[in-house]
Amino acid sequence: MRVLGIDPGIGRMGYGLVRSQGNRLRTEDYGCVETRPGPTGDRLVRIYEKMQELLQNLNPDVVAVEQLFFYRNVTTAFHVGQARGVVLLAARQAEAAVAEYTPMQVKQAVTGYGSAEKGQVQRMVAMLLGLPAPPRPDDAADALAVAICHLHTAPTMALVRGRNGDDRFPAGENRRSEF
Predict the structure, then answer these.
(1) Could you count the other beta carbons within 10 Å of the beta carbon of residue 126?
(2) What is residue 165's three-state secondary structure?
(3) SS3 sequence of 107-128
(4) CB 3.0–4.6 Å: which of 25, 52, 78, 116 could bond 120 by disulfide?
(5) Which DSSP category does 94 fall into?
(6) Stretch 149-158: mean pLDDT, rounded?
(7) Mean confidence (pLDDT) of the chain
(8) What pTM value is reported for the model?
(9) How far is CA 14 from CA 65, 94, 179, in A?
């Protein structure tokens, strides 16, 4: 499975493609899409065009996107939400499967601790992917963590869906347990 992880942002959007081969995870690509300060619409177009390019060139099986968490700055949250919406739109237009994870779910899946510090997550990303050092910039490392989260979570979610006979909820979507 090839998963494109996305850490959405208006100024810098991290992306990372991770492939699972059996129990091994391998990094195929990662980086950041940066936009210059200016009109929001222009920045969103840049993100959209780059997402289309990434989806076409990398051809992921799934796009895993980090959900918006709490921001103290409402303006920042609004811009990040807009960028996230553009990412989701591009993924669905490319007919890619989409999974969404909260920051706590990502931290839990990567480190085993939902309140892990950013540095802990980045070091675990490097260790899990066999990299000599945490990927830079931080947004790319965060995107790789989102991809790893999906690769660790999706098999369990598939089992739960199979056991319940319920395929309405894609892997990564939050819902209450019916057990």
Answers:
(1) 17
(2) coil
(3) HHHHHCCCCCCHHHHHHHHHHH
(4) 116
(5) T
(6) 81
(7) 86
(8) 0.85
(9) 10, 19, 36
pLDDT score for 22: 84
CA separation, residue 20 to residues 42, 61, 88, 127, 164 (Å): 35, 11, 23, 15, 26
Q: How far is CA 11 from the centre of its chain?
A: 17
pLDDT of residue 177: 32
Helix 118-129 with 103-111: angle, nearest 10 deg? 50
- List active site positions: 7, 66, 139
φ and ψ of 29, to 5 deg: -165, 150
| Amino acid sitting at position 71 | Y
**Could you please report the per-residue DSSP string of 5-55?**
EEE--SSEEEEEEEEEETTEEEEEEEEEEE--SS-HHHHHHHHHHHHHHHH
Distance separating alpha carbons of residues 176 and 128, to the nearest angstrom? 30
Mean pLDDT of 7-27: 94
User: Taking 50 as the threshold, does the pLDDT of residue 172 lie above it?
Assistant: no
- Residue 73 to residues 33, 43, 67, 69, 70, Cα–Cα distance (Å): 22, 19, 16, 12, 9
Question: With 90 as the cut, is the pLDDT of residue 128 above it?
Answer: yes
Residues 14 and 32 sit within 8 Å (Cβ to Cβ): yes
Whether the link from the prior residue into 170 is cis, omega within 30° of 0, is no
Residue that has been written with the tokens 């990303």 in this structure: 125
